[in-house]
């Protein structure tokens, strides 16, 4: 039975949208598949890993549209379509439990699994809270905090991003227990307080799919899941069940010793000294020796090798000698695009507050380390 006859890109674009969460090897084979459903002249593509679900659709002209529903290996179908020539015409045909993909002299035969066995995340009738903002605003929020989210921490609630609605603000907070990134974005309307912990995988997938545009994204909060609807895409994710740490207690208020420094100058200096840091270690230390008008950056490794950089700064307070994780500093400097960064200290044993001049909505806190 002929299912679809269309241009390669008509199928490839929506397929690429949904395959980011799909793993080639799954405990359940059907989770490696994409659910493709045809209804009238609209084809929907849906994937899930049981925690996250992405759905999108494509419309195309067809003289005799055939309604159908099937699942097929998502990555294999994507790789096949990618391999075809630009503007190639593709025909999808079904016979028994196989899908035949044909284009020119190329032909492929893929196994089908029953659509009724595909484990979709149930749709909720009504959300608790609905928030609408620009896609570029949400993308910017995620970009400024996602690098601080923990990876495979035994404190499972740290393996996600706090997404909090508080009156006129949507707040994002990411932490791994050693550093914390906070950012708030303004909402046009006031909302009741609502918070969820969005899993790390959903955060990064969402960042890839959002456009840097003024087009809207609608966020629906449910009791145990959250849904993002934008640009003909619906991403639904279960949320992490746990209590996120009180970030307000982490943000320092007594850091009166401060200076501003050019972001690129500091980034390049840290990149140079990091060459002689202990590359194999997770926590790579860097020593910052702050004196009036001077910042000395020192890195050592286990072979007793050492790298130093000295930079001029506008600092007139008492000296500070503090050690920090150099990776945490590089993460910040690589993920903001401001010309300068503002660094504030209390003493060598207290956390460092890094902010962007002129932006009161972003804060980055790094705990000191002993090296």
Can you characterise this structure?
By secondary structure, the protein is α+β, with helices and mostly antiparallel strands. Helix content is 17%, strand content 45%. It has 6 helices and 22 strands. The strands form 3 sheets. The protein has a 12-stranded antiparallel β-sheet. A 6-stranded antiparallel β-sheet has the order 10-11-22-21-20-15. Strands 18-17-16-19 form a 4-stranded antiparallel β-sheet. Strand 20 and strand 21 form a beta hairpin. The longest helix is centred in the first third of the chain and has 11 residues, at 8-18. The chain starts with a strand and ends in a 5-residue tail after the last strand. The mean pLDDT is 92.
Question: Gist?
Answer:
Helices cover 17% and strands 45% of the residues. It contains six helices and 22 strands.
How far the N terminus sits from the C terminus, by CA atoms, comes to 68 Å
Number of strands: 22
Find the CATH superfamily of the largest domain.
Answer: DNA Polymerase III, subunit A, domain 2
Compressed to H and E, one letter per element, the order equals: EHEEEEHEEEEHEEHEEEEHEEEEHEEE
The level-1 CATH class of the largest domain = Alpha Beta
The assigned CATH architecture of the largest domain is Roll
Average pLDDT metric: 92
What is the CATH third-level topology name of the largest domain?
DNA Polymerase III, Chain A, domain 2
Helix fraction bin = 10-25%
Radius of gyration: 25 Å
> How does the major sheet shape up?
12 strands, antiparallel
* Spatial arrangement of strands, main beta sheet: 1-6-7-8-5-2-3-4-14-13-12-9
């Amino acid at each position: 039975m002929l299912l679809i006859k269309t241009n390669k890109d008509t199928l490839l674009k929506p397929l690429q949208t949904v395959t980011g969460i799909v793993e080639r090897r799954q405990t359940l084979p059907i989770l490696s598949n994409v659910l493709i459903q045809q209804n009238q002249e609209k084809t929907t593509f849906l994937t899930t890993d049981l925690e996250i679900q992405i759905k999108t659709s494509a419309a195309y002209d067809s003289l005799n549209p055939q309604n159908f529903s099937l699942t097929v290996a998502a990555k294999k179908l994507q790789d096949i379509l990618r391999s075809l020539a630009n503007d190639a015409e593709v025909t999808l045909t079904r016979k028994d439990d196989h899908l035949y993909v044909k284009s020119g002299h190329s032909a492929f035969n893929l196994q089908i699994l029953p659509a009724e066995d595909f484990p979709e995340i149930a749709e909720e009738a009504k959300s608790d809270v609905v928030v609408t903002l620009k896609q570029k605003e949400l993308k910017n929020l995620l970009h400024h905090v996602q690098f601080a989210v923990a990876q495979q921490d035994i404190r499972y609630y740290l393996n996600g991003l706090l997404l909090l609605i508080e009156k006129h603000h949507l707040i994002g907070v990411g932490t791994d227990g050693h550093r914390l990134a906070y950012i708030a974005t303004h909402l046009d309307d006031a909302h009741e307080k609502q918070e969820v912990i969005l899993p790390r995988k959903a955060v990064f997938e969402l960042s890839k799919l959002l456009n840097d545009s003024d087009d809207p994204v609608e966020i629906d909060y449910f009791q145990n899941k959250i849904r993002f609807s934008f640009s003909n895409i619906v991403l639904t994710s279960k949320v992490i069940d746990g209590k996120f740490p009180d970030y307000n207690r982490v943000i320092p208020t007594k850091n009166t010793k401060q200076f501003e420094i050019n972001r690129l100058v500091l980034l390049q200096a840290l990149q140079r000294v990091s060459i002689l840091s202990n590359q194999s270690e997770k926590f790579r230390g860097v020593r910052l020796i702050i004196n009036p008008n001077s910042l000395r950056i020192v890195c050592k490794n286990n072979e007793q090798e050492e790298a130093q950089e000295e930079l001029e700064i506008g600092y007139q307070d008492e000296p500070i000698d503090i050690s920090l994780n150099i990776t945490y500093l590089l993460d910040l400097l690589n993920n903001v695009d401001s010309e300068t960064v503002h660094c504030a200290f209390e003493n060598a044993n207290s956390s460092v507050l890094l902010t962007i001049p002129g932006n009161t909505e972003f804060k980055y806190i790094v705990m000191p380390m002993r090296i």
